[in-house]
Amino acid sequence: MTEPLLSQQAPCRRSGATAPQLAGWLLFAAALSSIAGALGGPVAPQIPGALAWSAGLLLFSRLGGIQRIQVMLMLGLGGSGLLLAAYQGELTTYGAQALANSQVLIAMLVGVGFLRLVALPATAGNHSLPRGRASLCKTLLGTHLFGAAINFSALTIIGDRLHSERPLTPLQALVLSRGFGLAALWSPFFVAMGVALTLAPGAGLLPLSLSGLAVAVPALLLAGYGLTSRRDSADFAGYPVQLDALRIPLSLVLLVIAGHQLLPWLGILSLITICSLTLPLLLLLHRSHGDGVRRYRQHIEQALPGMHGELLLFLAAGVLMAGISALVHFSGIRLSLQHFGATEAAGLVGFSALLAIVGIHPVISVSSLAGMLMPVVTDPNLLGLAILMSWSLGVIVSPCSGTHLAMQGRFGINCLRFFGWNWRFALGLYGLDCLVLFGYEALFS
């Protein structure tokens, strides 16, 4: 997920960049160097990793309480494994892994943030919001599709428009929460997809996206039915979705899928990063050369530092993955599982959801278990699908998810209430997850 919106503060007039601005350029450089390495250039993966860590250190003081606890927990667990590696004389090997593990994910995270510059045009604030159950369904679908393309930026742009007329209502908050969270099931622009493809080597974008859509479509129908059945839905004030505005988000998804088929040797995450960085720049230059360059630079200096939470979470995840790999290798710890099928995948999704409820981010649970599961995984797509489901279900059911914490800070909606509002829907979503997992196993495994 990416941070809500560009800062509205005026550019700094002092000579020299501030620490956040420097961090923004370091992240941009990390993304470019990651792409260069993916294209075959002489760039070791540790270089973009080091650039990202430099930015992370500059932005660490910005972390909030819950995020800081999550990051420190991951660094502590991963660091214990690295200490064991150091004791065994293998610190260089596992330290290099820790530095490089998340660099492709972070490059993708940087890239997709640029999509908000062109993918979702602002609506005029002087028009009244459309009302009624049809508007609720359009807002649910619009949040889902825009979120699939430009991630968290869509949630905040739509939320800000709804909030501008009157304080966000619980029903509006639920529409945003469910519409956005379900996009993690299939969107190539969600970091969830990047995590799935990274932790399940051999998994494919197309099988994961299609399988995720098999859950997302009925889940959207279930969400729409449940929300429109509420008495207050008749007066729902929704976002004025324009179908014409869907062209760029849908084109982006199709462009990535087509590019993956034409250039199968290029990693899918790097392909997403390339599209995300270049297409907004080309469109901005086409629309207005001078202003386009200014907006692109403003995004680097003001918006990229705003992704400090996600950045440090994935940097810490890289340390955690390397540390757990070292612990497994040197301690001889093994899971007793002999097979990874639909039953085990459903257990992973349910276990991750329970941990998410108490504040443990899905990336922590899946990163901790995926490395130990891989030796018994015969179908990486099944593991990747379980990771997507874990992420989506965790975002929706957890009161401590980044989505709900951001909505609390931005719109004054108590994040603890989301569990009470969403747990019944989450049970239905988990049921759909299990049906698709067992259906996938029956058809393809």
Describe this structure in words.
With 445 residues, this protein is mostly helical. It has 2 domains: 1-123 and 242-332, no CATH class; 130-241 and 334-445, no CATH class. Helices cover 71% and strands 0% of the residues. The chain is built from 19 helices and no strands. It has helices at 19-38, 46-59, 65-87, 91-100, 103-113, 133-150, 152-165, 170-182, 191-199, 205-228, 247-262, 268-287, 289-303, 308-331, 342-357, 362-373, 380-397, 402-411, 417-444. Helix 8 (170-182) packs antiparallel against helix 10 and helix 17 (380-397) packs antiparallel against helix 19 (417-444). The longest helix is centred in the C-terminal third of the chain and has 28 residues, at 417-444. Mean pLDDT is 85; it is low at 1-15. The chain crosses the membrane at residues 22-41, 71-88, 100-119, 140-159, 179-199, 206-227, 265-285, 311-333, 345-370, 382-400, 421-440. Keywords: Membrane, Transmembrane, Transmembrane helix.
Which terms summarize this structure?
mainly alpha, membrane, transmembrane helix
